[in-house]
Amino acid sequence: MNQEAAVRLTVFKMKPNDAMPSLGDLSIVRGEQVVLQIDTTSPHLLSAAGSAVWDHIPRDRMEQLLAALETAFAAAPVSGYAAVVNVPTQLVFVAVWPWAQDAGRLAPNATQ
Predict the structure, then answer these.
(1) What are the pLDDT digits (tens) for 21-38?
(2) Counting beta carbons within 10 angstroms of the beta carbon of residue 18, is it exposed (0 to 12), middle (13 to 18) or buried (19 or more)?
């Protein structure tokens, strides 16, 4: 897989009473819930995710969350999707590569 392939990172905040989302439910995420949506490349994915959390995560949870993101985003998955749901902070991180099926607005280069 090409390390320079575009990846769309979408970070959004769940409402406390929402059920845990699945990829099928992401289309109902409202604009005000989106913290960050950016097209980047695989090597820059972790730093983009880290920049999204800086203002939304208590410092004592930062290292743990970044470790989880590093594990999830270490290699581009065959499915084209990788996600991390951080329940304590209510943040959801979804990375989508160009070969993901039915990605819609989560696809790289799709209209944001």
Answers:
(1) 554 455 455 666 777 888
(2) middle
